[in-house]
Amino acid sequence: MPIIVNLDVMMAKRKIGLIELAELVNITPANLSILKNNKARAIRFSTLEEICKALKCQPGDILEYMDTEHDGNDR
């Protein structure tokens, strides 16, 4: 999947656990776990906004695009 979710990294940097973040964002721990473990197929902007508020970060701190079609060498 070309979009990588780095939520676990941001959570570790902010020293916040899954249950605490789930409560702050008003999402079930199970759904937050799916997102954290890179298993989600989509995320609502409102959820992303609440996560960014809670973690005091930008969407780009959580989501990363990985180009799988190119090996990084421009020709």
UniProtKB/TrEMBL annotation:
PANTHER family: DNA-BINDING PROTEIN, DNA-BINDING PROTEIN-RELATED. It comes from Pelotomaculum schinkii. The lineage of its organism: Bacteria, Bacillati, Bacillota, Clostridia, Eubacteriales. Gene3D superfamilies: lambda repressor-like DNA-binding domains. SUPFAM superfamilies: lambda repressor-like DNA-binding domains. Residues 7-62 form the HTH cro/C1-type domain. This is HTH cro/C1-type domain-containing protein. Pfam families: HTH_26. SMART domains: HTH_XRE. It comes from the Bacteria. InterPro entries: Cro/C1-type_HTH, Lambda_DNA-bd_dom_sf. GO terms for molecular function: DNA binding.
